[in-house]
Amino acid sequence: MKALMLAGGLLLAAAGAHAATLDTVKQRGTLACGVSTGFAGFSTPDSQGNYRGIDADYCRAIAAAVLGDAAKVRFVGLTAQNRFTALQSGEVDVLLRNSTQTFLRDASIGLHAGPVNFYDGQGFAVKRDAGVTKVAELNGASVCVAQGTTHESTLGDYARANKVTFQPVVFERVDTMYQAFFAGRCDAMTQDASALAGAVSVAPNPADYVVLPETISKEPLGPFTRNGDDQWSTIVAWVHYGLVEAEEAGVTQANAEEQAQGGNPVAQRLLGTSGEFGSRISLDNRWMLNAIKAVGNYGEVFERNVGGGSALKLPRGRNALWAQGGMMYAIPFR
Fold first, then answer.
1. Long-range contacts (CB closer than 8 Å, 24 or more residues apart) made by 45-48
2. Quick check: do 21-119+222-324 and 120-219 share a fold?
3. Is the pTM of this model over 0.90?
4. Do 26 and 82 form a contact (C-beta atoms < 8 A)?
5. Contact 221, 120 (CB under 8 A)
6. pLDDT 10s digits, 87-118
7. Residue 14 phi, psi dihedral angles, 5° rounding
8. 25 in Cβ contact with 68 (< 8 Å)
9. CA 252 – CA 33 distance, rounded (Å)
10. CATH topology for 21-119+222-324?
11. 120-219, what's its fold?
């Protein structure tokens, strides 16, 4: 009984240690943001070492909202194996690393899954000259897959459900997996379709590869925070909703200051001209104005990193606004 009470006390102490992430970030003066180090379009360092991509932009947006400066981010490169541990231990304040939201991840590892900021699906990349057009045609093929990801288990689920056989070649690191696939070690490579498009775009000979149009799973990607810190989880969630709401309201990186003084009541609330939305979460009233000025609205973030303005040139698809046939829907700012 005494041991149980002690264990319970330790758990409560650990929860309390992370219960005020906002205060920690403000005192530190920087946001520690967990990201990947090799997903083109999401988070990868450029030639100057600056992280680029959707996830990197979300880190900057959160820093701008909380600290008033998008540059006050320390990017922490994480692997699929250590990403959740890094968040649980407090090494990072928020995880934005192409992480799929699932029941077990939401319910059993002490973390909170935030809103989906990218709807994806598990796909396959193959050599173009292999003549493969469907996943079923990969029966018996060797498939490169990253360890510790949902892709590893989904590959097995698909094989059992469709009575096909794959020969998984498992890699601890994603960059090693890419190298092996492009060196011809595997017949195919499986991952989120968007990540595969990014990998192919920077391959030695991009035209030699193709990402199959078929996907075999739902991969809703989004931020993770720690359980027990509702205030911080709320801030992270509403930065996302604010970026989507900004796109709906026509607020852009270029016109945000002007829109703050305009006559649109939605934009006024969003940008801090009316109401006291910032004080309710212990932030400056200009928190979303700062975030939008830093990275733009959701559509701008998408287009710049994975859409028409990027090397990936992915269609909006499910990631279009709900009014345009997609699934991006912001909870109202009111």
1. 45/75
2. yes
3. no
4. no
5. yes
6. 999 999 999 998 999 999 988 899 999 999 99
7. -65, -40
8. no
9. 24
10. D-Maltodextrin-Binding Protein; domain 2 (3.40.190)
11. D-Maltodextrin-Binding Protein; domain 2 (3.40.190)
